[in-house]
């Protein structure tokens, strides 16, 4: 539950929403990183619900010294709460650094100390107003396996303190903070943990698929290319003395094969990154140039602007298409055209065999899932070469758009 979403306060004045700041905290920031000011600001919105313990400070039976001590302690609690959520990374678990655990325990100790001081000055019922904050500190900074039992201990302890101080009727009055507010914090944190787990699983599966694809590609590329180079090198060495011209021809083929292999490896390695479309245009120019293919490519920035929201999908498609041109097409020229909702990659090579490998099948699925589009492959005119087209839903809204201007060869870099 995002803290930026308004929620109805409970009877005691404690929010039923998340008190921990944004769940989308920077998970890459460690204990040595800077403060997450945005998270602190979002967490600070909910400090308004410290109004209940603040209201207890206005009681007439407090001395001036007690009132001053309570005010200072409540301010210290609020500052510590904000700084903790701005400094301690999510989630501190068994694999976290010792420094993270030391910081987390020190933070808890400081907040508990503040609560005990307020309870001593204002009575046990003061802890009820702080209970959802304590629950947030354990639920949003640890795993549910640790956070849930700690939250139960916190709620039961605060209930006992409130009962001793204000009696059963006081506990009933404070139930909004003790149970409703704390319960909503727990539900919100569990939803966030579940979403983070889903994202981690999706990222792990995607990384595994990428590794598997790259492993297959590198095996296919280098296995074949290195075998050919090795064989031709042996032939050239045998012919060097008896037929220098034939040996020179073999060496030239070795050079061409190595350039092609280099271009294929470059195209494969780019799959490990997610560049913008302009960067992918430049990468395509380098791969084609290395393979000795004349490139007719759009200006990178013009292509990026024409792609618009489809830039990521077009990047995937351009990678796969250029890799296939370099690897299979034996083309002399490759032309790329970009308009809104349409990417076209055409070559003048040997033509498409009609079979879709894993790369094209995966690309077709990604285009459909990410952009609601489709992949089209057809023979170029006049029956030579291949044209690959990617259509997305943006196409219908831009039928009058002009293609991004093309440049040739090195001008596209």
From TrEMBL:
Swiss-Prot/TrEMBL keywords: Kinase, Membrane, Transferase, Transmembrane, Transmembrane helix, Two-component regulatory system
Composition skew (Low complexity), residue ranges: 8-23
Keyword Hydrolase on entry: no
GO CC, alphabetical: membrane
InterPro entries: HATPase_C_sf (IPR036890), Sensor_HK_TwoCompSys (IPR050482), Sig_transdc_His_kin_sub3_dim/P (IPR011712)
Stretches the record annotates as Disordered: 1-27, 392-413
Pfam family name, one: HisKA_3
SUPFAM superfamilies xref list: ATPase domain of HSP90 chaperone/DNA topoisomerase II/histidine kinase
Positions of the Signal transduction histidine kinase subgroup 3 dimerisation and phosphoacceptor domain: 210-275
GO molecular-function term, one example from the UniProt record: phosphorelay sensor kinase activity
Membrane-spanning intervals of the chain: 35-56, 68-86, 106-134, 146-166, 172-191
Protein name from the UniProt record: Two-component sensor histidine kinase
Classification of source organism: Bacteria, Bacillati, Actinomycetota, Actinomycetes, Micrococcales
